[in-house]
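Table S2 (continued). Query chain:
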Amino acid sequence: MLTRRTIAWNALLLLLGVIVLFSILLVQKGVLRVSFLDVGQGDAILVTGPTGVEMLVDGGRDRSVLRELPRQLGTLDRSVSIVVATHPDADHVAGLADVFERYQVRSYIESGVIHETTVTERLSAALEKEEGLTRTVARSGQRLHLGSGAYADILYPDRDVSRVESNAGSIIMRVVYGDTSFLLTGDAPSSIEGILAAQHNTALQSDVLKAGHHGSKTSTNALFLSVVTPSIVVISAGRDNTYGHPHAEVLERIRGAGAHILSTAEEGTIEFVSDGRTVRQK
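Corresponding output:
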């Protein structure tokens, strides 16, 4: 005869089994997923490769990223393969210290910009505590492998940016799977967009472009749009933010380029899935 304790234990095991199965099913194999997380006025982008390799690009300005990551990774997944900090501004890296406290991370990639604040000091302390962490300063030409032929190519910085203005040192990367691609630009200003356009030209073409600097008028210029030719431009910004992002002139430029605009301020988290042939919004 089963005791109450046995019944309760069996019920707990069944519940744990369901949770594990649900978490596994959340990671859809064989496709590339790119999720622009709703973290308010900031950036946090989760890229999940076809074999489950996870890359978090930036972490927002607060703990909002910890609300969003379990929804993407599953509640039991406590590891992220790669974390990229595009540049050390608070609205991109303040949440990363919390990520390192909650998740095990194998690789950390940074721009090399020196920008000492209480936020970066807290992040540095979290990095020091992470066992087995590999730290790399980003340079053009590096390729991050995401499984099954998916990869992220770092396009910028192509030089030492330790002493440049933080936004101008942003890591820019192009995530590719088959015939599909996503261009992630951090807060890079138009001057850096011009350098990329001159260096790479049509090799920048991407299905989805993340607008630089949350849709600020200082980024996403007409020349850059004409080279990238995106079908969709994503703006990561907070609703009713004090900066007025996205700026009206940027929206006009994007519409003039024939691209569809999506914003986390309006949509919340924005998810895309690629099978290597086409990109669709989930």
